[in-house]
Design goal:
The protein is α/β, with parallel strands linked by helices. It is built from 26 helices and 18 strands. Strand 5, helix 8 and strand 6 form a beta-alpha-beta unit.
């Protein structure tokens, strides 16, 4: 593991903080926190915490000792000084005199001693950091240390690697009891360089930011080197199934999970990991046993649940009924797990959703699942790390994490659940939306509108470079597929790629098209056929592929077509465009008629005069000049006298998507064109 410290970078952080000595020290705390956070083999997704003990002045100008520690909701990779709130040390130290302290009182004391009352809640491990008498303290969940922490002979292995440099702290849930036990362990082993929290993670410290960070890297590399000597050499070559086959399995699994969700709840979004190391792991003969063992560190349970859903090759081969049966067993097992453990809390706990957050699918890969693509990615990242921990652990004596009761306590701990946030969910959270022509003006504007509403986007476009640019503008956790949608089988392949990426499909926005011109009486056959391929047959092919996924999921779905005012208001010289668009208009109505009973809604947009495709700046200039009007007047040539923009089309698509009792409807988005009004 590389040591990422750079003197020049550290100096830049300090210079940006100004000349105040305390601010400059805090800047170094921010810098090394980010160095730790950017390495997923040290911490991932909000895990770990860091602190620094400094002097500060209160409102009366009196100097006092404070500890700056990671605040709730901050991630080490992107943390700023504001994410390391200062807490008065004296009251925290006095708490050690108590025999017990409730979580609620601990949080209240920490919060009431913040130097800034508007700061985020200090970490639940604030007291542990405070009780270790070193200026800088770092806590990580390094992959190598998680392997070591879950070995059955962890004490012997730790002595072999570190001698007397590290002391072990038996597993205790984070909070006051763990802080006192860690402090007592530290004091019983003077001169140690760090602590290994059994089943949990690693602590190290130092007088400076660099010294503490150096210890984190040094210790982690010592464990890594010890583990590496027992790893098998080559990975097993595992043949990958076709994308279409993977998509069928994932859509079936998604539908099976959805049957255990409340009416109207969004299905989970998936994130498939099928690298060589994952597929090799899923070939293990002890896979069924490992699938029931638990999590690499208790912090992970809120993201992945206690264990994954395990689909064997036989389950996959037997099809939907077998897959559903495995999901049913998982849900029943989770309910039984809750019912075994909840009585200890006297009815104070409400069961979380019993569906899986992680799946192991033999021959296909590891699948993270979540309410959105970000949550799915986090679950998949943690799932992959856990596979590495398990593999290394089994090679060195075994992987034996915390027991069921401890796992339940952590999963249902209010302070742990608070990390997930409880804000109102976006309207389209969990909805996977495929947009054809996604890199074009209307397609991308529509994608942005849906992304803002919480949807997960999958863009399809012909040009890879344009697609990459479009996806970059959407931000992380969206994806795409480049292809010529008029090619044979392209629609089915694109939809399969979407399902393989996100597990399924909820809304198809069949948007791609192009306006081909020519008088019908003299129109070349090739031109008309080419226009039908793009402006009708591609729509039909994507609709067929989407319906197949909707039926496999069994939860309805939506198809939204970008039709055109040409379908009802033909323009002279636009026969090649209007004829297939009129056919698409009929396709929309026919599909709505046929699919309504399955809960599949089909609607569309008739737009006009949008700056995209055919309506280039050159054409706008030419038509404005020909009419002897300015461009603004030309673009606002409608009843409202206002230009219609691509974003307005996107917003109309969104309105239709949210109109739960509307199907077979076409909405005009043209500012008012009475000749194109539907009658």
């Amino acid at each position: 593991m590389a040591n990422r410290w750079q003197d020049s970078e550290a100096a830049a952080f300090q210079d940006a903080a100004g000349q105040d000595p305390a601010a400059r020290e805090l800047a170094l705390r921010v810098y090394t926190s980010r160095l730790i956070g950017m390495d997923p083999d040290l911490v991932m997704h909000g895990g770990g915490n860091t602190s620094v003990k400094l002097k500060a002045r209160d409102i009366f100008g009196e100097e006092l000792d404070v500890i700056h520690i990671k605040g709730s909701g901050w991630d080490l990779e992107t943390i700023k000084a504001a994410g390391l709130p200062a807490v008065r040390m004296a009251p925290l130290m006095r708490l050690r005199e108590l025999a017990a302290l409730s979580d609620e009182d601990m949080v209240n004391i920490q919060r009431s001693n913040l130097m800034d009352s508007t700061a985020p809640n200090p970490s639940v491990e604030t007291l542990l950091h405070a009780y270790i008498p070193h200026t800088y303290v770092d806590h990580t969940h390094a992959t190598a240390f998680l392997t070591l922490a879950n070995l059955p002979e962890v004490a012997e292995a730790t002595r072999e690697i570190f001698g007397s440099k590290l002391a072990l702290v038996p597993y205790v849930m984070p909070g006051f009891a763990l802080a006192k036990l860690a402090a007592e362990t530290y004091e019983a082993h003077p001169g140690i360089e760090g602590l290994l929290l059994v089943k949990h993670g690693h602590f190290a410290w130092g007088p400076t930011a660099k010294a503490s960070y150096d210890k984190i890297i040094e210790h982690t590399n010592l464990v890594e080197e010890w583990l590496a000597s027992r790893r098998p050499g080559k990975l097993v070559a595992v043949a990958r199934p076709q994308t279409a086959s993977v998509a069928e399995t994932l859509a079936t699994l998604r539908g099976a999970i959805a049957r255990h969700l409340p009416e109207g709840a969004a299905m989970p979004v998936f994130d498939l990991r099928d690298g060589d190391a994952v597929l090799d792991f899923l070939e293990r003969k002890d896979l069924a046993s490992l699938a029931t063992r638990g999590v690499a560190t208790p912090d992970h349970v809120i993201r992945t649940k206690g264990h994954p859903l395990h689909l064997t090759r036989a389950d996959v081969a037997r099809g939907p009924e077998a897959i559903s049966a495995v999901v049913d067993r998982f849900v029943a097992d989770y309910i039984a797990y809750f019912e075994r453990n909840a009585p200890r809390f006297g009815g104070a706990k409400t069961m979380l959703s019993p569906v899986p957050n992680l799946a192991w699918i033999e021959g296909i890969g590891l699948v993270g699942m979540g309410a959105n693509a970000t949550a799915a990615r986090i679950a998949a990242d943690i799932g992959e790390q856990t596979l590495r921990v398990m593999a290394d652990g089994e090679a060195r004596g075994g992987f034996y994490p915390i027991r069921e009761a401890d796992l339940f306590d952590m999963e249902y701990w209010s302070l742990e659940q608070a990390k997930l946030g409880k804000g109102a969910k976006p309207a389209l959270q969990g909805q996977v939306v495929l947009v054809t022509g996604g890199a074009g003006a209307i397609g991308l504007a529509t994608a942005k509108v849906f992304a803002a509403a919480g949807a997960t986007l999958f863009l399809v476009d012909r040009d890879q470079a344009a697609l990459d640019t479009a996806l970059a503008s959407l931000g992380r956790d969206h994806a795409g597929h480049a292809c010529d949608i008029t090619a044979k089988g392209a629609a089915a392949s694109a939809v399969a790629a979407c399902v393989a990426r996100f597990g399924g499909l909820d809304i198809l926005i069949s948007n791609a098209g192009a306006a081909m011109t020519g008088d019908v009486a003299t129109l070349a056959d090739e031109t008309l056929r080419a226009s039908f391929e793009l402006n009708f047959f591609a729509h039909q092919a994507f609709a067929q592929a989407a319906v197949a996924v909707f039926r496999r999921q069994g939860r309805g779905g939506q198809i939204l077509f970008n039709v055109s005012k040409q379908a009802v208001n033909p323009g002279k010289g636009f026969a090649a465009y209007g004829l297939p668009k009129a056919a698409t208009f009929f396709l929309l109505r026919q599909l709505a008629l046929e699919l309504g009973g399955e809960g599949i809604r089909v609607n569309g947009i008739n737009a006009d005069r949008i700056r995209s495709g055919l309506l280039t700046p050159e054409m706008i200039a030419a038509r404005s000049s020909a009419r002897n009007i300015d461009e603004a007047t030309y673009m606002g040539g409608n009843l409202l006298r206002k230009e219609v923009e691509a974003v307005h089309v996107g917003e109309a698509f969104l309105a239709l998507a949210r109109s739960e009792r509307t199907t077979a409807h076409v909405m005009t988005v043209d500012g008012g064109n009475i000749e194109a009004a539907l009658r």
